[in-house]
Amino acid sequence: MRNFAEALSPIKRDWKAILIVIAGNIITASAVSNFTLPYRFPDAGVTGVAVLTNYVFGISPGWVVFFGNMALLAWGWRNLDTRFLLLTILSIVVFTGFLPVFNDLQLPLPHDNRFMGAVISGVLKGAAAGMIFNVGGSGGGTDIVAMVLRRRRGIEVGQFSLYVNMVILAASLKSIGLEAAVYGVVSFYVYGTVLDNATRKFDRRKQAFIITNIPDEVSRFITSRGKGVTRLDGRGGYTGQPRPMLISLLEMRQVIQLKRYLQEHDPHAFVSICDASEVIGQGFKSWKSL
User: Fold this and answer.
1) Of 11, 83, 96, 241, which alpha carbon lies 20 to 30 A from 117's?
2) How far apart are CA 261 and CA 225, in angstroms?
3) Same structural domain for residues 75 and 217?
4) Which of 169, 184, 203 is the endpoint of a domain?
5) Are residues 255 and 208 in contact, defined by beta-carbon separation less than 8 angstroms?
6) Alpha carbon distance 134, 140 (integer Å)
């Protein structure tokens, strides 16, 4: 019992991630109940299998999602770290718990525009998945298998998920028809696009290289905004004079503040701003989320 409590302690401290995982799975459950099932679209992963069995046999998708994911967790739990495992279990419980809730509370949506349904479904699921992935969580399903296979065999997650989802889509063709399958592909594309942009946006920062005559003052200005700064000792290639250089990772609003500060206090400073697509470390993305 004590060991289990110790395993839970990191999750207790990570309450923001828990809230985000809960919110993301509520959004996903709403998208499946209000768009995927009414429009008879296919879906991906274990949810795709659950949706298919609902179309063919009338089985509640919540049961298939729950037991399917639990079976996958039992298979791969030895290769999953505690945080990922517990957040995934939370995802499964919240998603399967809210599926019947949204089924009983169907929104008054016009179900005659399937393209609109495909786009909205993809946007909601992509945004929700981005929320969950950015805190190091998982929606379960093929994410579990992909994570285990990556650690055991070095197989790429994206490549594995693509193959599995294509198999599920092909298996759904007979039940849903070609038109619904095409709209399903549209939904998958929108989902992937939104997910990619959501994950990149949360990690993206601006990297500033600054050569200034007042490095100490600029360093104090940056640290007063809550960001770190590293000082490198350089030398001018032409003059041979010492030229200290500062490197810092900032948010866009802080870049604007920095430029205004330099314009006022050192208009001869040299600044280069570029995108940093992913930043890991103190004050940014946690190593625990990888």
Assistant:
1) 96
2) 12
3) no
4) 203
5) yes
6) 15
